[in-house]
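Service request form, structural biology core

Requester: graduate student, group of Dr. S.
Request type: structure prediction, single chain
Budget code: on file
Notes: please return the result as structure tokens.

Sequence provided:
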Amino acid sequence: MDKHVHADQLAQSGGLQSNSKIIDGFVLRTYSRINHLDEPINVYIEGDGLAWISRHELSSDPTPREAVGLALAAQDPASNVVYLARPCQFNDFNQMPCDSTYWSDKRFSEKVIAAMDEALMAFSKKTHGQKINLIGYSGGAAVAVLLAARRNDIASLRTVAGNLDHVYVNQYHQVNAMPESLNAIDAAEKIRGIPQLHFVGTQDKVIPQSVVLRFIEQQNTVRQEIAQQKPVNCSVLIKVNAAHQKGWVAQWQRLLRQPFPC
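Core staff response, request fulfilled:
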């Protein structure tokens, strides 16, 4: 099945409507369901998609074969649900070329995060500044963290199989570094006051549990000048019987009910 058709069908199953926004040269695909303007928004951010064919062969189209982030959004019963694809995903390359560096070396670059932030702002304005619950899958978790670090309207953060330290993950898999990308773990301490749930798959061969443990440890590191203050611990790691791409959707409505630590 065509990847675009598959995504449209997933979205329709959750009552999500398709739209596209052109932001700073990117066409960003969104799916959304906004029913109550006076309630918070649950915002889902897609993973890296089909960024690479193999360890050394870059894909010509990063659109996910199975959009896990979108499938999670379709399972969410909240009144207001928004899904943000990543730059260059679901893109018509004949109409709007997109440089492959934005799904490889620059996938978490300042330009990418700024574009995602602008897309998020459009939905925030639509709901008159309601609070936002961010949910990021895989590489989308890194985007979610970086967005949370620059906004003041984030009520909570959930990451699913999240790449929260791309430097560590790339070293772990012995693949090329991404020096032009921002790293989520560098923003860890800044967002430590936001309630967070970090779901890790016990069968995940892509993102090991150690990635999230490093992220939480970084959040709990107290700067010397405030060493006498008790650190706020709002992050929890939750193990789930899932692989990197499989097992999440069937359990998602139950995982959504998991309480936050603060």
